[in-house]
Amino acid sequence: MVKIRGFLQQVNIPAMARIKILLPHTFALTIQLPVRITDLNYGGHLGNDALLSLLHEARVQFLRHLGLQEVDPATGLGTIMADVAIEYKGEAFYGDVLQVQLAATELHKYGFDVVYWVKNQVDKEIARAKTGMLLFDYNTRKLRVMEPAVAGQLGREARP
């Protein structure tokens, strides 16, 4: 039932298609991140906004592991997030230590995807996520083509 200007009307709203994130066979790096008290929402568990921030932290560490930066302050060259998808699988709570596994996948002319598999300290799955990253020139505010050196750094870790 939907209420529109004081009238009740039965409306058939199709169910939203569920996101399914496919995990690669191997991951390049595992990052450990604690769930802080400030990461909790009104439900007493890890909030969706906090999870996205934790994924950001994991991605920065992942890029550093590959010898890359989100943005190089000297050149203004870096990456920009084009999209994000998160598939929630379980709750995380204050004191949990999340094990975030990361892999670069789907390399293309202008970017790549980062896939995340998030579990807690007892191996309970918390979430799967994917961010679409594009190479970006912050000076010109335009996309840039992936240089062979960057493709090589990511390619060592990439899994189709």
Fold blueprint:
Blueprint lengths: L1 E3 L2 E3 L19 E6 L13 H18 L11 E12 L8 E12 L2 E9 L5 E13 L4 E2 L4 H8 L5
Antiparallel strand pairs: 1-2, 3-5, 4-7, 5-6, 6-7, 7-8
The low-confidence parts are: none
Oligomer state equals single chain
Helical run tally:
2
**Proportion of residues in β-strands:** 35-45%
Radius of gyration: 19 Å
Overall 3D form: globular
Overall residue-averaged pLDDT value: 91
Question: What composes the largest sheet?
Answer: 6 strands, antiparallel
Instruction: Indicate the percent of residues in helices.
Output: 10-25%
Structural class: alpha+beta
Reading the helices and strands in chain order gives EEEHEEEEEH
Cα(first) to Cα(last) distance is: 44 Å
Number of strands: 8
Description:
It is a single chain. Helices cover 16% and strands 38% of the residues. The protein is globular and about 45 Å long. It is of the alpha+beta class. The model has no long low-confidence stretch (mean pLDDT 91). The protein has helices at 48-65, 148-155, and strands at 2-4, 7-9, 29-34, 77-88, 97-108, 111-119, 125-137, 142-143. The strands form two sheets. Strands 3, 4, 5, 6, 7 and 8 form a six-stranded antiparallel β-sheet that branches. It has a two-stranded antiparallel sheet with strand order 1-2.
